[in-house]
Design goal:
By secondary structure, the chain is α+β, with helices and mostly antiparallel strands. It is 47% helix and 17% strand. The termini are far apart.
Length: 60
Amino acid sequence: MKKPTYYLWKTDFHTEKEFNQTKEKYTNLGFRVVTYLDGNNQTDIHSGIKALIQNHLNQC
């Protein structure tokens, strides 16, 4: 069975320790945690993923 994915924006956390604790919490609950390092956390994540895939396809 596949693990569900939980997305975290690193910019939402004030400290590395706070980020790591949150990431570990979701990992222990059985999630696969994906972290975004920069960008606007109010942006629709699905639009960003689609743009990333499209950019990759354009380079092939």
